[in-house]
Backbone:
């Protein structure tokens, strides 16, 4: 299993998105981002840069409180 595949599977953002039957595009459209940006968040390639309005929209979409939101969206415990 490659590092990227493992990272995507372990991503708290991906896990929650799939629990709610949402696509990366659904999140991207709600936040005014691209699908690739959401993918990069899930793989840990980039850390999210969001305005307070975007954070609120993401919390609403994923049914998370601010406290529920993970510190990292990609998996940080990946080993090769």
Residues:
């Amino acid at each position: 299993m490659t590092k990227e595949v493992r990272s995507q599977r372990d991503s708290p953002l991906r896990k929650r998105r799939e629990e709610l039957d949402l696509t990366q595009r659904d999140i991207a459209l709600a936040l005014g981002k691209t699908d690739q940006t959401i993918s990069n968040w899930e793989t840990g390639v980039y850390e999210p840069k969001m305005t307070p309005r975007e954070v609120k929209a993401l919390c609403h979409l994923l049914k998370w409180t601010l406290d529920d939101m993970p510190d990292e969206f990609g998996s940080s415990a990946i080993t090769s």
Notes: Confidence is low (pLDDT under 50) at residues 4-8. The longest helix spans residues 52-62.
